[in-house]
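Milestone 3.1: sequence recovery, worked example.
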């Protein structure tokens, strides 16, 4: 199985793995987003942020419930973009593990692209 993972990384070095689980750990693969999926995720994040600011205006305890609901509604959609569709990882994730997955998604799909764009802009200016 290790040979398969190594060969996958040779095909696409952006593929990452992470250990998940609450009682026993298992490794899952996090895939980079395609351009289309990156646009979907950006739209999803925009929608979540919009809802968050609408919910934030509430001054009662339902604010917490609404924020948790927003996260719950969208976590599966995000995971489906980066994890094999055949596995249900949500029931196995801890809060720390989902944050680690979010960091991988950001680093692989947004941060490296940002650096490349800034480098390209620097080349164009000179």
């Amino acid at each position: 199985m290790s040979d398969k993972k190594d060969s996958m990384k040779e095909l696409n070095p952006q593929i990452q793995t992470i250990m998940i689980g609450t009682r026993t750990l298992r490794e899952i693969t996090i895939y980079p987003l395609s351009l289309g999926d990156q646009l979907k995720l950006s739209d999803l994040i925009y929608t979540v942020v919009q809802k968050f600011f609408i919910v934030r205006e509430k001054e009662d305890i339902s604010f917490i419930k609404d924020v948790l609901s927003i996260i719950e509604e969208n976590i599966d959609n995000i995971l489906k973009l980066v994890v094999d569709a055949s596995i249900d990882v949500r029931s196995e994730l801890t809060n720390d593990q989902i944050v680690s997955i979010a960091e991988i998604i950001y680093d692989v799909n947004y941060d490296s692209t940002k650096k490349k764009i800034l480098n390209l802009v620097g080349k164009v200016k000179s």
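The CA atoms of residues 1 and 7 lie 10 Å apart. The chain has a mean pLDDT of 81.
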